[in-house]
Amino acid sequence: MKAVGTTNRTRARDYDEACSSDSGMILKVHTSNYKVVGFTEEAEISELCAVGKTHGVPVVHDMGSGCMVDLASRGLRGESWVRDSLESGCALVCFSGDKLLGGPQAGIIAGSADLVQKCRKHPLYRAMRPGRMTYIALEQTLRIYLRGEEESIQSIPSLRRVLDTPETLKERQGKLHHDLSR
């Protein structure tokens, strides 16, 4: 494992210079619960995929929440979209089944069929694999996404809440405060 770049500035060139014949993959991890501000720079996933292609190294994007709808078009920026990472050329994309996806707590690995299969054959898979109920709940959640973004937003509470208006949040806060003060 080789650390690339610095805490606040990492460019695609840094990854390119770090790649060697021993490189097994390029990993980008989403900063899901903090933000670096000020003098910062971060390589885009599409740039990393280009570096990976040049060196014949797969790119893995650990996205954190696994957003399946375009929140940026609804005014919420900064959350990576699973589709963008896959279309950019990531070999694997890892994300949570809960959080923004709105399903059961689970880890999801999507992408290249042969690499996903390698993950399934790893001895840890047997210890970490989800139970039948998790698979069923995840399938039902993903079926909602097949009906489109608007249906997903209306049917999946985590998405609906993320997109609530400030007025709705203020109203909910007032109700909660009232209930707690009794």
Q: Structural class of the secondary elements?
A: alpha/beta
What ranges have pLDDT less than 50 throughout 5 or more consecutive residues? none
Q: Give the name of the CATH architecture.
A: 3-Layer(aba) Sandwich
How many individual domains? 1
Distance between the termini: 55 Å
At the third CATH level, what is the topology name?
Aspartate Aminotransferase, domain 2
Instruction: Bin the helical content.
Output: 40-55%
Mean pLDDT: 91
CATH superfamily: Type I PLP-dependent aspartate aminotransferase-like (Major domain)
Largest sheet: 4 strands, mixed
Shape: globular
SSE series: EHEEHEHEEHHHHHH
Give a structural overview.
The protein is of the alpha/beta class and 182 residues long. The protein has one domain: 3-Layer(aba) Sandwich (Aspartate Aminotransferase, domain 2). It is 46% helix and 13% strand. The chain is built from nine helices and six strands; from the N terminus they run βαββαβαββαααααα. It has a four-stranded mixed sheet. Helix 3 (82-88) links the parallel strand 4 (59-64) and strand 5 (92-96). Helix 1 (12-18) runs parallel beside helix 2. It is globular, with a radius of gyration of 19 Å.
